[in-house]
Amino acid sequence: MTAFLQNCFAGLALGSTYALVALGFVVIFKSTGVINFAQGGLLALGAYLGYTFSNNLLLGFGVAILLACLAAALVGAGFERIVLRRMVGQPPFAVIMITIGLLFILEPVITAIWGFDNLQVRNPWNINTVELGGLVFGVKDLWTIGLTTAVVIGFFAFFKYSPLGLAMRVTAFDPEAALAQGISARRVYAVSWAIAAALAALAGIAMAAGPGGLSPSIGFIALAAFPAMIVGGMDSPGGAVLGGLVIGLAEALTRGYQDQLFSWAGDNVSIIVPYILMIVILLIRPYGLLGTKDVRRV
Amino acid sequence: MLSVSNLEVVYDDVVLVLRGLSLDVPAGSIVAVLGANGAGKTTLLRAVTGLLGPHRGRITKGTVRLDGEDITGADPAKIVRRGIAQVLEGRRVFAEITVDENLKAGAYTRRSRAEVKESYARVLDLFPVLAQRRKSIAGYLSGGEQQMLAIGRALMASPRLLLLDEPSLGLAPRLVEQVRDIIVQINQQGTSVLLIEQNAVMALAIANSGYVLENGKVVKDGPAADLLADEDIREFYLGSGERRSFADVKSYRRRKRWSA
Ligand SMILES: Nc1ncnc2c1ncn2[C@@H]1O[C@H](COP(=O)(O)OP(=O)(O)OP(=O)(O)O)[C@@H](O)[C@H]1O
Ligand SMILES: [Mg+2]
């Protein structure tokens, strides 16, 4: 039982990271109809910026996180403004290729600045743990879950109650009708990119603060968050969070019971679990767990 | 108030749809625009409110002025802030969100909370149906209620000029009357109205003046009473003639029903 709970906890922590990244995917997809393949690059950029703020500028870790998220948001919004704006009206395929291009640009830029070495981010979490009722909780995992919860609640409150959140929702639903209300689609797009980049940056720093440290391959986590987005339903923010948690749990449990149950499948089976789960769920629910149910009256 | 002169609009850089169209909406009036299928009525509204972009359309000639200020090709947000609101053809309410949220979206460009509250009260007053269903999801409203919501949403911007694109489309006769009365009421409260309609009788009954478009040009204009008495218009819109374009109108109506 203890082992099970321990694995669930690990799954929630991992799932939180996925949820943040997947939420970023969904925010951009929902408002612009584009899957942002650069999400992993933005995540890595955010993590490295966090490293610089914390290690080189010696800022407090909380401040470093905040600044890194802000900086990543600026990069995201700037990219949208400068590059994607020129692509408005072009087929989504072309725009998706451009986001892949951004990923390939970000990677060498990051390694040129920070190198290939594994870096340790100066942070108060580290490998500290707290014990409670026989369970061992990583401080970093607790923070990841807590921060994710706070950010996700904040996001949903923003999305549901703020004028800009409303503008994002209606632009996603009917861009022309939104324009007719005087809602600036450009602003909505830029804000979507900023939010997605900030979420990715937060996920990146949280990961980098863990025992694994920080290396250029950190962006690969976005590949596992991708199925989380699909599982949840591409256009559902709630689905992204749910999908992230489901995938995280599935992955952690598989890893936890690897020796007992999956030894025949080799060591890395937990890595492919997100994709297997994605395929199975899509077979049962083609629009994902919480994908759109159209309420339009016909 | 609104003055469109010599307007030319092209879609996809090749399809010339408006060919030197001129039209005036005097302050405080209701102006009706009639015209068959594809005459360019919706295009005219898009050109005024800056919505040609998403349709790959462009103004190639002419000007749009609002109270003397040139707003040709300005972006939609600016135009809404200048005081023009548009009710799109086919209602286009935001079906996934509540009535209240739809209205809130209509007030997006406005700063003052107090003024928004005032508009909100005015809209609920004008549309008691909406007042009862404020928390309902807009997609579940009836067609008539959705049309009211679309008009109410536009009013939330507190426009000085309201553009309506076929508000009676697909509505039962009683509802058409209701929409008509509401337009009159809105106008009496001080908003000028540009009303696009297939329902010529309804439109001309409440309009001060009217224009008839054909192939992107004004082919007839004048006081509403004169147009209502006009032989050609009676023949064309009241269905007593055998003209070819009338057949277009019929097939067009059928098409609209499918897509409504
Ligand atoms: N996005 C577009 N691209 C190319 N041509 C278009 C586009 N939108 C409209 N048109 C063409 O422009 C012409 C005028 O269309 P418009 O929608 O303005 O007519 P309308 O008078 O509003 O007709 P309806 O009564 O059917 O609404 C039509 O021939 C139409 O095919
Ligand atoms: Mg039209």
Describe the structure.
- The complex is a heterodimer of chains A (298) and B (260).
- With 298 residues, chain A is mostly helical.
- Helix content of chain A is 70%, strand content 3%.
- Chain A has one domain (17-115, 148-284).
- In chain A, strands 1-2 form a two-stranded antiparallel ribbon.
- In chain A, helix 5 packs antiparallel against helix 8 (185-208) and helix 9 (221-232) packs across helix 10.
- Chain A starts with a helix and ends in a 14-residue tail after the last helix.
- In chain B, the strands form 2 sheets. Chain B has a 6-stranded mixed β-sheet, sandwiched between helices.
- Chain B contains 11 helices and 10 strands.
- Chain B has a domain at 2-83 and 159-255: P-loop containing nucleotide triphosphate hydrolases (Rossmann fold).
- Chain B is globular.
- Chain A binds chain B through residues 89, 163, 166-167, 169-170, 173-184, 295-297, and chain B through 49-51, 53-54, 56, 75-77, 79-81, 85-86, 88, 92-97, 101, 104-106, 108-109, 137, 139-141, 143, 146, 153, 157.
- The complex binds adenosine-5'-triphosphate and magnesium ion (MG).
Approximate helicity band of chain A: over 70%
What is the element string of chain B, with H for helices and E for strands? Answer: EEEHEEHEHHHHEHEHEEHHH
| Main sheet: strands, sense, barrel of chain A | 2 strands, antiparallel
> In what order do the strands lie side by side in the largest sheet of chain A?
1-2
- Terminal CA distance of chain A: 51 Å
Silhouette of chain A? globular
| Parts with pLDDT < 50 across at least 5 consecutive residues of chain A | 294-298
Strand portion of chain B? 25-35%
Mean pLDDT of chain B: 88
The CATH class designation of the domain at 2-83 and 159-255 in chain B is Alpha Beta
Integer-rounded radius of gyration of chain B = 18 Å
CATH topology value of the domain at 2-83 and 159-255 in chain B: Rossmann fold
**Strand elements of chain B, count:** 10
Please state the structural category of chain A: mainly alpha
| Fourth CATH level, the homologous superfamily of the domain at 2-83 and 159-255 in chain B | P-loop containing nucleotide triphosphate hydrolases
Ligand identities: adenosine-5'-triphosphate, magnesium ion
* Helix-residue proportion of chain B: 40-55%
